Amino acid sequence: MSDGILGTTLKNPDYESTSADAGMRTLGGGNRKYQLDILEQFEKSSFNMLVKPSGSGKSFEQAALAVRDIEKNTRKQIILVPQVHIADGFFPEKGEAMSFKIHGDNKKYRAAVLAEYNFCKKRSVKRLAQWLLASAAELEQPTADNAVGGLVAMISYYAFARAFKHMSCVEKATALSNLHVRADESHHVAMGEEESEDDRNRVGSILKLLMDNQHNGSGITLSTATNFRSDSKCIVRPEMLSKFKQYRLSFLDHFKNTGIKTFRVEIVPDIKTNPIEAVVMNVCAKDEADKYHIIVVPPCNIGWRALRDDPSHGVTELITKVKEQWLKTNGEECRLLNLVVSPALQKKRKAALIAEPKVYNEKHMPAFDVVVTCMLGREGTDWCPASRLHVTYVEGSITLAVQTLGRILRRFETKDEIVARYYYPKFPEPEDGMTASELLNDRKNALLFMTEVDDLFFPIALEDVDLQSPSNGQKVIKTLRERLGETKYIQMKAAFLKLAVDEVVGTLSTDGLESVIDEVLQEYVPPKYWKQARRVLWGVYMRRADTKFQSVNVNFMADNLDIPTLIEELTLDQKTLVCHGGDHEVIKKMNAIAKTSFQKKVDLLKSYNLKMPADIKKLPLDLRDFANQLCRRRRDTLKALGVGAS
Questions:
Q1: Which one of 183, 280, 523, 638 is most buried, by most CB atoms within 10 A?
Q2: CB 409 within 8 A of CB 55
Q3: CA dist 538 to 250, 443, 462, 501, 523, Å?
Q4: Domain count of the chain?
Q5: Structural domain span for residue 361
């Protein structure tokens, strides 16, 4: 295992070998008694948010909740998905019925979406609009063999927005009456945002309209593994969030039910530019012959593929070398599925992947050993055998990165160990003419992702908690993440890492880190949580600066460590948070680039001839953020920039 910047292993304290679910499913069965809590809470609420890790049963829970809602309220249900193939996880294909029961109840349910209302298969915006405008009484009613009748439809976010685009206000009100919208992978939603020309971003406005007319018998249930977005938009605006009943299942609680014994996250070190050789070595290692691998490559204009000028931008070479080495090592052909192909081929090959059954035996093994993909299948997709994830570039979207990590968390009969390997390239060396952004952006993205992995999957140090003792005497644990909400929490960490890296690389000292933390706290955290947040941010910094702090509890850091003294013991490369083994000469060059970039931004700000503080709002976004940052940290900034000068 790598001794790189992450290199962390999580062991399952309640490991017990389990097989995949088959046949009749039971809501609340086995170790999933929490599903009964979800059912009880959500059946009494019109607006719900379900936040659970990948592979923990969100699709089944949404489908079961839809069936129960139809049984109790005869209400139409529409399931929204960002990609049409994700809909296959809710109800069986080809009209076959899903069979399930509820723990403690002998009643059995059978449910299937009618083929004409599975708009992910038979796409028609016109017919979808007709379904939305029809009343429940006008649609086919439930029967003993199909508990949902014609009251369930499945559609993509895009088509859902298209159906509303040309409706009148009266028609929209009709379409949203007596309707429960079940939005899966809801981190794609930005509720309350203004409508845009991009139809994919209009779903949030439609859901806001539904909430504005909430007395029409309708409801919303959002489900996602990552309840945050990579941009500055909120999934649910704060003023709306109080109306939502929220249920969150931690990864550690889910991990106990996966049948997985250990979970490793590794950084593969010393990748110069092209990761192909390292990937081939790890995928085709002798002791990996019985594992199933997903290899994620960047888009053709990003990372190592941007440097390749062949038609596949390096994918053909990767596949050829994997196949050659697999044959040499294992003495048999590698069954490899390439999803980095034309849209027509993608559709066919994706269908082959998701058609595989979830339960295998010795006579029917998985059809593939290796799957190579770029974007397809990185969220909401089940290829249960996969136990090895190879990511070959620094992902710019924290949301997509976390979703991709979830691809190997699915239960499978023969796997008890999973490994996620990240082939981070050697970060850019400082060169004359380089900007600080070019030098540091990949480093900052990698740091943000690694702290998020710490937070979600290895919450040893970062899960700073607030203990409350309610009237029943039971202590309730509330993490800072829960207190702030996902969006604010991610924004807080992203802002801190950006400012911390800029501060330390720019000054080669850590003196300004306290002021950085103060600035972030004032911007993102209510004062009553400042003590908690300060410990978390120091924990983030120390865990990334020195591996010896990777298993230190954040409260220990607060109570037992003299942070300023400890910081001074770090080497220069550790202080920067981003060099990781770089020598002092390299760090000094980085420092020079950071200072030059800083001064250029200051000079550019002066050229705008600002007259008053309000003029800052008129600046381009990057300069506006820079100016506000300066103003928060230096009282004399406005004067230095000439603001108010004649």
A1: 183
A2: yes
A3: 23, 19, 9, 13, 17
A4: 3
A5: 258-426
